[in-house]
Amino acid sequence: MGKLMHLALIMDGNGRWAKLRSLPRSEGHKAGAKAAADVVLAASRRGIGYLTLFCFSTENWKRPKAEIDSIMGLFSSEFESLLEKIGSEDIRIVHLGRRDRLPSSLLSRLDKAVERTRENKGMTLQLAIDYGGEDEIERCVRRAIASGEKDISFSTLLSYVDNPDIPSPDYICRSSGERRLSGFLLLQASYAEIGFYDRLWPDWDESMIDTIIEDFNKRDRRFGGI
Ligand code: IPE
Ligand code: IPE
Ligand code: MG
Predict the structure, then answer these.
(1) Could you identify the atom of ligand 2 that is nearest to the CA of residue 59?
(2) Which domain holds residue 192?
(3) Could you tell me if residue 224 is inside a domain?
(4) Partner residues linked to 53 by β-bridges
(5) Ligand 1: nearest atom to the Cα of 57
(6) With 70 as the cut, is the pLDDT of residue 36 above it?
């Protein structure tokens, strides 16, 4: 069993968590952001090389404007506290997804965080914000064509993803009991292990990282061999 190098998480269930408590959905997102910070720290301390968090999908723009505004506002404000928390952790932050539709205030915070952590050599934290697998495939194909590629093999395509230096995920996990990928890392998921956990995202904490590592270590990855 190889090491869990790249863990990718679909952070789902914020709305249901809030509903169970008769709170507005925005409170669920706030609690979800806090859980995310704990999980990031735990992953870094447990030696995970790459952690990808699915924060906002290309389809999430379908939600009511008030909810989108509260999520985007939260991303901006939580950045500061996340950076503070991970301050001494040697974590490198990168963005995955489209930039053209994100509010400029969020983009400038994101860029600052990326810039400030660029030289860090510990865990890479890949934040998928306005990310969709189908959208990424389209953008890869367009980039490849614009670069004059004639014969676009799968590995050629993979070299045009947003962050080509990041290896494909070893384990994709989703919270909240839903059993689907919702477009997450479609190009990179071919041989990822997949895990579904019933716990709603805001209830996640450091202990989930231990559970995940334990579950992953039980998997027998064969990659088509025997
Ligand atoms: C995940 O929680 C956060 C985002 C998709 C932005 P949801 O908001 O999807 O929560 P549920 O699925 O409605 O419970
Ligand atoms: C997937 O969750 C996207 C994120 C976690 C950011 P959704 O809640 O948007 O997915 P669906 O709509 O239930 O498939
Ligand atoms: Mg959801």
Answers:
(1) 9
(2) 6-217
(3) no
(4) 9, 127
(5) 5
(6) yes
